[in-house]
Amino acid sequence: MNALELTALCKTFGTQQALADVSLAVPNGCRTVIVGPSGSGKTTLLRMIAGFEFPDSGSLTLNGQVLVDATHAVPAHQRQIGYVPQDGALFPHMTVADNIGFGLATQSEARHARIAELMDSVALDANMARRWPHELSGGQQQRVALARALAQQPRLMLLDEPFSALDTGLRSAMRKMVARLLSDAGITTILVTHDQSEALSFADQLAVMRQGRLVQSGHPMALYQYPIDEQTALFLGEAVVMTARIEAGWAHCALGRVPVDHQTSQGTTRIMLRPEQVLLSTTDGGGCRGVVTEREFGGNTCTLTVALQADGDVPGQAILVRSSGLQAPDVGSVVHLTTVGTAHVLKKPTALSPG
């Protein structure tokens, strides 16, 4: 059953169309991530779901209740939707406890117990209840903001890049904690981010936006392996994209002869492999030859740029390959490359018009 249904949403600001015919179904209890470059319309879409913006056309339904259509719109404060903005937006004149309890019933034992329960759920020590927002770290402020949103027992939780201001280690820990907390509570969640790795790790469902349109949605692994086009492929991570001639289920390209996932495709097109599908060896084990031209050490892994050798009418090109950080060959080394799995045949690019 779908908790949230977005149908043909359109929104224009002056002459700029921010959303164009966006439709998306969010299953009950699902963590959906909306990802896209700046200006793609993802934050406008989130604010529309929250009730801070209203569409020019289209409809929005939550748990069977129509929140927006051509005839009416439910105000934001009546939607029972939790919202955590990027900066947390805590009230600076209120303590942690008062921020979390904002909107709860007036002072009572039950209110204090509920605040303590919420603080515990987001891993905040009870002795922080009397602190002021400026006395908290960035991660602590985000947890207070999350607890405040959970206090209202929302039907839907919206997260607008809530981890972007945190350092790398804390960001990962907060993301895992929030994902676990929301899953345990069974709360349907929508996260907006421009961070590809964050999107892939947090999402049960991933939606990619570009120029105000929803270009592809589905399971994160499916989008990573089978992106609809080259732009989406490169946005979701490093990719080896090259021109190939497809014949009888095989691609003939700079990497040699590679099986493809679209058995009916024929002729010249573009294919994609992820760097982890390209295996590298310093001994001749078949495949094609190349020379390491760049070496970027990253600890346990190393990203290599390998210039492939031209083969007859197939020109060489430089591609990215991942290797063990401790066993990566030096710049100038001759290497042999083979592939695993199938190459994905990309659709030919089509212009996205916001109008």
TrEMBL record:
GO terms classed as biological process: quaternary ammonium group transport
SMART domains with a match to the protein in the record: AAA (SM00382)
GO cellular component: ATP-binding cassette (ABC) transporter complex
Residues covered by the ABC transporter domain: 4-236
GO MF, one annotated term: ATP binding
Keywords assigned: ATP-binding, Cell membrane, Ion transport, Iron, Iron transport, Membrane, Nucleotide-binding, Transport
Annotated Pfam families: ABC_tran, TOBE_2
InterPro entries documented for this protein: AAA+_ATPase (IPR003593), ABC_SmlMolc_Importer (IPR050093), ABC_transporter-like_ATP-bd (IPR003439), ABC_transporter-like_CS (IPR017871), ABC_transpr_FbpC (IPR015853), Mo/tungstate-bd_C_term_dom (IPR008995), P-loop_NTPase (IPR027417), Transp-assoc_OB_typ2 (IPR013611)
Protein name per the record: ABC transporter ATP-binding protein
Annotated organism of origin: Pseudomonas extremaustralis
